[in-house]
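Q: Joint fold for the lines below.
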Amino acid sequence: MTRRTALAGLLAGTLAIAAAYGSAFLPGPPPGWAAWALGIGSATVMVASMALGAVREGKGVGRLKWSFAFVFVVLAGGFCAVMALPAETAASPLFLGLPLRAAIVLIGIGLLPLLVLPVAYALTFDDMTLSEDDLERVRAAAKALRAGAGTPPHADANAAPPVPAEAR
Amino acid sequence: MTLALLQTGAMPKLAQPAIVAVAVVYFVIVAAIGAWATRRTRTASDFFVAGEGIGLIALTLAAMSATLSGFAFIGGPGLVYRGGLGAMYLVLPAAVTASMTSWVLAKRMRLLGEVRGLITVPDAIGARYRSPLAQGLSGVAILIAVIGYMATNLLALGLVIDSIFGTGLRTGVWIGMAVVLGYSVAGGILAGVYTDVFQGTLMAVASVLVFLFTLKVGGGMGGISRTLMAADPAFLGPFGTMGPGAALSLFFVFGVGSMGQPHVIHKFYMLRDPRRLKWYPLLVTCALLLTMLLYFGVGVAVKALVVKGQLPALANPDDATPIFLLRFTPVLLAALVFSGVAAAIMSTVNSFMSIGAAAVTHDIPVALGMRTKNELRWGRIATVAISVAAAALAMLPGALVAFLGIFGWGLFASTIVPALGFGLNWEGATRQGAIASISVGMAVTLAFETMAYFNVYSFPTGVTVSGLSLVLSILVFFAVSWATRARAAEQIDPDVRLVMSV
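A: Joint structure:
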């Protein structure tokens, strides 16, 4: 996945939510598709935001694509499933003590991403988020800025600082 | 999440010796931490960003404490009692939000802070776009939201103090304000962070223990579900009694909007070693979910107890937690939770004090081309001024205070998520796009919330002002950036570009 794909997903998800909100202003009750658009749109915006933050120039999101795909399926699929499944009765079976659709919401949407996202973040941190080399490059830039500008930190956060060629 | 605004009604009286004693011990510990932090606060950097010197555990607990206010313990369970599963959509995104915020903002803000010595969230916006105007607008939005939020939180704190000590509401508000102000002015964010560590631990432990009691009293999760399914099938339906539009709108606003909460993301500047961010999402997500157990458990258990006739129907849904604790848990645990409520509110107020003071002494002056000399001293003065203003606002009628608090989340989200969250990850974003997005977010939120309050105009069911303002600010951000894309490259300084490329 590239930055362009993530941005396209972000925009598409936002437009889906905008359409859902817009439909509420039409006469009569909200159309049936609005809730679907809101659920899928929200899942898309969240996953696209993560991808946008994770994408590295020339490398895409690497193996994180599986984590993001899984979470998109859990979120969007979960919302779609609870809207499509029939309502439970008092005698319906329970899953971990909850009616099926409540279990999908609480355990699927509310809990499953915890088992994947933070772990994926930690496991890919060194090579895809912040390596020692990355940190050294940024620190060299900061050092050069302070030495070159001769001003203390946060003296002028908007000023264009000098950055040495080796730090670029 | 940060929604103490719903707690504007009186709580049951809690003035029992054990509860008072635990509350006194709690306040003494907070005061001791404040005194310790005061000795370590010598510069503006110490005051606003803890001298960039806190560890991972402190960051985790401080972020968790700042995210949760008393709403998680009082208003939230009340909302579940009233709205069923639909009320869970406020907290449902918690399994995703910390990871999302980490990928989008944590690393880049921390590195930008190191390169530029930044101390505020608007600082990052100003640096990203080389725009004092964008920084100033963001500072104004934060200041407006902070004062409203603080007023609602101080009112909630006053209610808790009145319930425990019988001080009366007004006195309770001023006592609460004075306690938080005492350690915030003296010890700055450093005092806030380390009281948050204590408070966050307290909140998590209390939540887990109370959840275990809800299961025991309610006959296990299965017993609670069977009772509720027989009496009110919609209650545990996928959207409770809210309907899909309203519930999913909450999920969007509290999910995506979480990236724009300055009192939380501001803490990324404070982490001593940025490589420790590796474990941040895992730790903070676990801490958040543990603390949310009470939110869900008490809401459904009290509803089941009412259905079974073991409790009378609640006149005020916000009484769900106090009544459950006083009737079904040991008094020591009840005392711990009530102190936890105060802890949650105080940690949120402290964070707001810090970012509000920074907006006054740092961000708005930058926009006006001014420079504040001795930011530490003026930061302390601004903290006092903002706190007194917020406490005075908290004295207004409850509905008006709640109205002020409603601004907060949506205003933060719509003015920060596109400009900072997406802008730090997309070189095509432009200064014009950021300024337009912040302006639209601010205008839509303030205009429509005000119209709704005065009954001039209200959105249809399922559409929230905060949701619509966030959507519009994102779309405006993309549209204006696209229209002005020819200038995008020239608006990024080399060091900022370096941070964005890492």
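Q: Anything notable?
A: The first helix of chain B runs from residue 17 to 40. Chain B has 19 helices and no strands.
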